Predict the 3D structure of the following.
Amino acid sequence: MKKKKIGFRPLALCYACLFYLFLYLPIAVVVAFSFNTSQLNVTFQGFTFEWYGRMFENVQLMQSFFNTLIVAAVSTLLSVILGTLCAVGMYRFKFRGRETVSNLLYIPIVIPEIVLGIAVLAFFTMVKIQMSMATLIISHVTFSMPFVVITVRSRLAGFDPSVEEAARDLGANDWRIFRRVTLPMILPGVLSGAMLALTMSLDDVVVSFFTTGPDSMTLPIKILGMVRKGVSPDVNALSTLMILGTVLIMVAATFFEMRMEKKEEA
């Protein structure tokens, strides 16, 4: 049978262009206004790099940015460790109520963020824990860890247990099997879960609003407070740098996953 050739479809191309324009036009506007000479994000009056210098002079803005990075890094690390161990444990061990535990992992994902924020706030208030950086990190781990578990479990779905059995027959203990056999094979899933957890933590507003302390304000909360008076161009400059950093991380993660897939095929 002759293969049917897929011709050029102007309508499909137009739809794709409109789709990506809808996604990336707001980002392009933020980047463009970071070089605007005007302090008002209404019209573009001129080109300047001034706001990238003044950004570092805004102490409160930079402090909230550093708080965001600290919370995102620590919560992502904890979510990856706990989520990976949880996924591997649920894959290896058969126990009563495993399906119930598996279904409970979806609750922080499907419930509205404001409900989760109120629930976490009520818990910290009940146990008389003062809001601080620690409570913020714990709350971020709460809603980030299920994403890691689900992503790693999807990777484990195609895992061949005979590889672990072969390593065990060769005298390797459980820790060595996990470190040298299991973890390298599920690493792409772990990295995908880490990227999801990092993204969820960086842009969270609702849960952070309920659990942040006076000295642990994150960048999204800071920007939310500036909306009423108007967002200054130095925020656009910082957002542009964050977009650039996110793109670099995504490219590096994609390149690493491609190398891992090539090694598996070889």
Residues 59-92 form the longest helix (34 residues). The mean pLDDT is 85.
